[in-house]
Amino acid sequence: MTTNPYLPDTPLILGMMRLLDHPDLHAPAALADWIERQLDRGLSVFDHADIYGDTECERLFGKALARRPGLKHRLRVITKTGIVHGHQDTSVWCTKHYRAEGGHVSAAIDAALGRLQMEQIDTFLIHRPDPLMAVESVARALENAVEAGKVRHIGVSNFLPEQWRWLQKNTRLPLVCNQSELSLSHSAPLFDGLLEATLSDHLKWLAWSPLGGGRLAEALPDTLLASAGAQTGLDDTGLAIAWLAAIPGSPIPVLGSLRDSRIESALKGCQTVLPRPLWFALLEAIRGHRVA
Questions:
Q1: Active site residue ranges
Q2: 244 inside domain
Q3: Which pLDDT score, from 0 to 100, does residue 142 have?
Q4: What is the distance, to the nearest Å, from the Cα of residue 187 to the centroid of all Cα atoms in its chain?
Q5: pLDDT 10s digits, 164-186
Q6: Is residue 292 part of a domain?
Q7: In a domain, 103, yes or no
Q8: What is the average per-residue pLDDT within 21-36?
Q9: CATH number of the CATH domain containing 43
Q10: How many domains, the chain?
Q11: How far, in Å, CA of 256 to CA of 129, rounded?
Q12: For residue 118, what are the domain limits?
């Protein structure tokens, strides 16, 4: 069976969406220190989007790289475009909308490179499926960016199979990934065919919100957490990540937390194989019913 070699050495992706919630990391030197700590842990992929902090998350990250230029050669950045919030809409309607258009995508790539102060984005994603997507112009914009060396890989985010297949049909480049929600508390894609479509089309699943918004400890019974922890040595974060790691295709968690303690727990989960009955026990507890 053909496999997807995209990011084979990456146990976790570090999501930067909440960077503005951590003022202690806003100074370039402090953020550079934090980035270097993650690199030393073996974590080299950082996830951005132009809407995170209204572009400010990318800008802060770029200032940290400019402060310590050697870091940029050790890391890879994923970023995205395609969502316009209502307060960003310059029309009279001030409406949240999508912009999967060639010109917008090209401009977004150039703007992201400028904010990040990098020469190449490792992976550029279309953030949401756009019912008005100008698919041919989007495909050409992505192809031109790859040919110019501005982008290394292309992919999608939150797409359903026929949505990513339509874009794939219109570009000669492979889509390497779909960044989509998947977690113990959002397991429907394991039962509705989305996982199998992802595997069949050789896309890597980048799983956002892998900890269910950080509420798993509240959702799981204390007795189950205690017994699972005693058997595996994992806390609720580690259990959530180990649960994901057991899924075929090895989805890569996009961890939203920037706390070192949470990152360490997640890494421990990446390195732990859950017993199959425990995997299903956790699923049963979170869903409130057994599998059929």
A1: 52
A2: no
A3: 98
A4: 17
A5: 999 999 999 999 999 999 999 99
A6: no
A7: yes
A8: 98
A9: 3.20.20.100
A10: 1
A11: 22
A12: 13-181
